[in-house]
Design a protein that fits this description.
Layout lengths: L1 H30 L7 E9 L2 E4 L4 E4 L2 E10 L1 H11 L3 E11 L5 E12 L12 E2 L2 E2 L18 E5 L4 E13 L2 E15 L12 H6 L3 E13 L4 E14 L9 E11 L1 H48 L18
Antiparallel strand pairs: 1-4, 1-14, 2-3, 2-14, 4-5, 5-6, 6-7, 7-8, 9-10, 10-11, 11-12, 12-13, 13-14
Helix pairs in contact: 1-4
Length: 330
């Protein structure tokens, strides 16, 4: 019986030992993915910002500028692309809505981002765009890959429609989470006017006829939880200028927007809580279960060897019978 039990334990030991790397290196890359129907929103604010008054064409200080960003998973579009792409795809329809202190729209930029559900690498398909302009992204946007590394990444900038390095700057602690800090600087670059302008009747085409151009620069910062690859906090030091043309009345340039854009506090708290819960799920597949199965396999192997050794031990000899004759009773 001991030998049978040791063989059963040995079989389980081999099973769990083999399951450990299989779960980490085979199952995890295939099972961990972004849901196709995910919806998320975020509110950012630039307090004490500078904003252009298009009525007077002069820059003025305002109490705050609010940016509302939404990302909505388009399941139908993702399924259509998957038929030809041959892999799991996520389609995010995004909208960046900027409004002044009076609640009026400053700009409204839609975006369609198509990417691999597992690796977050861009997938090029019909419909990929920024503000109606077709684009072909390289690098990541919005989210880093699962198990983010301590290195630089390529990050897509929607304003310039270009990809630039975003640099790893170190490891920090953010509200109880170990995070990687990344920073990207976009130098002054001529960019297109948004299709939705703050003044009714004014279009990018009509502004272009005046000879006035729009320029943009930003310092982009992200604090990324490395297990999930999700940013838990982000901010930008953002500047826009209008330069030249008759629209400025002889001036060389005027500030269109300048401000330090930060996530609103309630959205920071919500994001941190969400990332903490998702982090546990990822760690189950990448650390807790693989290491647990490996330790369990080692314990079962040790127990199997111990039972095998016990089964091979010779049985204790029976006590020798006495040769002295028993007394005969009368």
């Amino acid at each position: 019986m001991r030998r049978k039990a040791s063989l059963v334990l040995l079989a389980f030991a081999v099973f769990f030992a083999a399951l450990s790397p299989l779960l980490r290196w085979y199952a995890f890359p295939r099972l961990a993915k972004i849901p196709a129907n995910q919806y998320q929103d975020m509110v950012l604010e630039a307090k004490g910002a500078t904003l252009l008054d298009y009525g007077t064409m002069k820059a003025r200080k305002v109490s705050k500028v609010t940016i509302v960003q939404t990302l909505k998973g388009n399941v139908e579009a993702a399924q259509k692309i998957e038929r030809t792409a041959g892999r799991d795809v996520v389609v995010w329809d995004g909208l960046s809505y900027v409004q002044g202190p009076d609640g009026k729209v400053v700009s409204k930029i839609p975006e369609r981002y198509i990417f691999d559900a597992h690796s977050q690498a861009p997938v090029h398909a019909t419909g990929e765009m920024v503000d109606g302009d077709p684009v072909k992204r390289t690098g990541i946007e919005f989210k880093w890959p699962f198990l983010t590394q301590k290195r630089d990444y390529e990050y897509f900038d929607a304003q310039t429609r270009t990809t630039n390095p975003i640099h790893y700057k170190g490891t920090q602690n953010f509200r109880g989470l170990k995070v990687y800090y990344f920073e990207q600087t976009i130098p002054w670059t001529k960019v297109a006017f948004p299709r939705t302008m703050p003044v009714k009747g004014i279009t990018p085409e009509s502004v272009a006829k005046t000879g006035t151009t729009r320029w943009y620069t930003t310092v982009r910062r992200f604090w990324v939880e490395p297990v999930t690859g999700a940013p838990v906090y982000g901010e930008e030091i953002h500047k826009e200028e209008l330069r030249g043309g008759t629209l400025l009345g002889g001036r060389d340039k005027v500030t269109a927007f300048a401000g330090h854009v930060k996530m609103r506090e309630d959205y920071i708290e919500h994001t941190v809580d969400l990332v903490k819960s998702n982090r546990t799920l990822v760690l189950l597949m990448t650390s807790y279960l693989p290491w647990g199965f490996l330790v369990l396999g080692a314990l079962l192997l040790g127990l199997s060897l111990w039972l095998e050794a016990r089964s091979r031990r010779p049985a204790d000899p029976e006590p020798a019978k006495s040769s002295t004759p028993e007394p005969v009773s009368a």
